[in-house]
Every structure is written in C-alpha cells, then in structure tokens.
From TrEMBL:
This is BHLH domain-containing protein. PANTHER family: TRANSCRIPTION FACTOR PRE (PTHR46446), TRANSCRIPTION FACTOR PRE5 (PTHR46446:SF28). One of its GO terms (biological process) is regulation of growth. InterPro entries: bHLH_dom (IPR011598), HLH_DNA-bd_sf (IPR036638), PRE (IPR044293). It comes from Arabidopsis arenosa.
Amino acid sequence: MSNRRSRQSSSASRISDDQMIDLVSKLRQFLPEIHERRRSDKVSASKVLQETCNYIRKLHREVDNLSDRLSQLLDSVDEDSPEAAVIRSLLM
C-alpha cells in the first residue's frame, strides 16, 4: 500500500517538459550573466541551474558581508541613537 502511495505522489509531483522549459526560461531572466546574452544564444538547462546555484551562493555571501558590516557599524555608534535603531532593524 505504501509503495502505491509513493508512486502516486511521485508522479503527481513530476513536472512536464513544457513546465521545465518555462521554469528554466524564468530563471534565465534573474541571472545577470545569462540574461545579458542574446536570446538566440542557446544555454542548456543544466548550465542555467548551475549558474542559478552560483548566483544564490554569491547573494548569500553578499548578505553575510553586509550583515558583518552592519554589525561593525552598530558597534561604532551610540547604543541609544536613532542610527543604532535603524541598524538593528536592518539586522532583524
């Protein structure tokens, strides 16, 4: 019984080729390096997914760096100042 359920949920969660093409096309729009290429340049789905992962990692590093900089800035201002309140709200 559990095998039947597993197969049913597995087939229900599969996406069609058209859906995959649409999703990869949407991802291309968010990737600066790929989006800047001409539309006629073919980029494989695996390349788009690889670039997406790289871009997400880059964004995570940027967020970490900005958090570190905000923390350092917070350490350098008066704890009760309006600037400190703004920095704390950005860190939340």
